[in-house]
Amino acid sequence: MAELIQQVATGLSTGSLYAIFALALVLIYRSTRVVNFSQGQMAMFTTFVAWSLLNWGLHFWFAFFLTLLIAGVMGALVEKALMRPVENAPSLNAVILTLGLLTLFGGLALRIWAGEPKTFPSPGVFEGAPLTLGPATISRPNIGVFCTSVLIMVAIYMLFNYTKVGLAMRGAAQNRVASQLVGVRVGRMLALGWALSAMVGAVAGMLLAPTLYLSPSMMMGVLLFGFAAAVLGGLDSPLGAIVGGLVLGVTQNLAGTYIGSDIDIAVAFLAIILVLIVRPTGLFGKQAIGSD
């Protein structure tokens, strides 16, 4: 029983990383109805920016928030310069464009910072002895990542449900013409959605980098699990992104411990497939009115 509790705690720690990345995907989908396949590489690129700022001697938290600002500007520029011209084109055009951005950001990072892995510091607030809760031992960084994912989820929920800006973003994503008729600046809302998503992705990258070595390919695996978590929870649900990430992390860890580390990923994705067969919109996704 003690081993089971420890494995669940470890799985929750891993799932927290998936959850934060899934939140970034849900945020951009909920505000623009675009699935951004370049989310991982954008997060990686901004994490390299943070690494450069730290190497220039900036304090960690100053570099952290400056990186968030840079990520937000980058996300808004991507939407305005690249995504907006294809907003009325077939949806496949936007998908292909995000795949192109995935390659572009990866190539730029490789060109600027080379391919040699780099170390990235952990926030000082995450340092300290592991926390023991009964039979489970949880590291401080894992606790910090879990708490961060919950805080981001709460902030996104409050934004979309209790602010005029959040409601305008949701309206612009669901019906642009109707939103324009009631005075919503649709272009500005779409750019804001990309900016916020890039900022959340940057947080995920900077929290993940101390665990993995910083490299142009470090987010590729997380991209896969982040998408899986977002789909499992529901692409339009911030709560679903958190739950999906945690469920995926726990399932993967338990499968690796009790079935075999060589098929833990396969078992985790099999669980997702079974859930989606029963509930195609995900655990917390909402069925669109009038859809089949």
Rg, Å, rounded = 19 Å
- Major β-sheet, in short? 2 strands, antiparallel
Tertiary shape: globular
Low-confidence stretches: none
Strand portion? under 5%
Overall residue-averaged pLDDT value: 83
**Strand line-up across the major sheet:** 1-2
Number of strands: 2
- Determine the number of helices (DSSP H or I, runs of at least 4 residues): 11
Helices and strands, in order, run as: HHHHEEHHHHHHH
Between the first and last Cα atoms, what is the distance in angstroms?
44 Å
Report helical residue fraction: over 70%
Secondary structural class: mainly alpha
Secondary structure blueprint with pairings:
Elements lengths: L1 H31 L6 H17 L4 H24 L7 H23 L17 E3 L2 E3 L1 H23 L1 H11 L1 H6 L4 H23 L11 H14 L4 H21 L5 H15 L14
Antiparallel strand pairs: 1-2
